[in-house]
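can u pls check wat happens w/ LE7NWQGK
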Amino acid sequence: MIRYKKLGYIALNVTDVERSAHFYRDMVCLDQVGEINEDVAFLSSSSDYHNLMLNKSDKPGLKRIGFELESTKEWENAFELLKKEGYDPVEVDKEERALLKIDKAFRFRDPNGVTFEFYNKMMQRAKPYEPSPVRVLKLDHVVLRVPNLQDTVRFFNEVLNFKISDTRHKPDGEMYFAFMRCFPNPFHHSFGISQGDDLRMFHIAYKVEDINDIGIARNRLINLDVPVIFGPGRHLASGSIFMYFLDPDGLTLEYTQDMEEFPEENPREPRMLDHTLRTTDLWEGASDPRIGKVGHVEV
Ligand SMILES: CC(C)C(=O)/C=C/C(C(=O)O)=C(/O)C(=O)O
Ligand SMILES: [Fe+2]
């Protein structure tokens, strides 16, 4: 069974790389790494060379999702397993790995055609990450909307060995959301999947240190007319305090704090959670219709 270290990086498509790179650097408080050019920019929220890649495109949204595996051995096992299961993993060439500062990587597509990259390790930065004024701790999770939730959850659970932390259900009992962790990473979810009419990126989330960071971020965003579209509130599922806002293309971002962690041995059973607003937000705040609206997925 595949073992992971973490959600490693997200490659986004944006319409104006320079504008978005400045936003993620100055408003989200990530470090810009290397030079920004009109086609690509890298940003980091840890000692990793990058956790966010911005690519020029006229369709803003998701390009691919990168997961770091627990070890090189795990990476080799994962490659063999996906090959055996018929998912046609393809190794990333040397030139691209040099750009990404990654040692070994392969890509494959999930049942929806979304590109995933599994890699063994990334170059570490000499300069420590000292985020300010919003203390971002890490890239936390990504949530997708998919047309076939059941098949997608089955693939991530049974083939990729992601564990289900909780699910949400409509009044008739049908599941419409699954929170998944990349085992044995302890965090409640690094990947969320929602039932949708089409394939779309719902949001990406960064973990911040504490509630003060969410308060500081809220005021900074509002002062510069960045739409804050939901929260601060508290999600029942992971127990985290959240706030959602929009990037310059209208992509949804979330700051999150204080998420439940699971032990590797004897974790609690996944819960069936209901569809009510109180489960989405224990503080029962109102969401804005722009949430998750923009988020084309490159397939
Ligand atoms: C909007 C959904 C269905 C929800 O309940 C989200 C919960 C959480 C969480 O519990 O942390 C998220 O992070 C999320 O998907 O944004
Ligand atoms: Fe989230």
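The helical segments are 17-26, 72-84, 94-100, 149-159, 211-223, 277-280.
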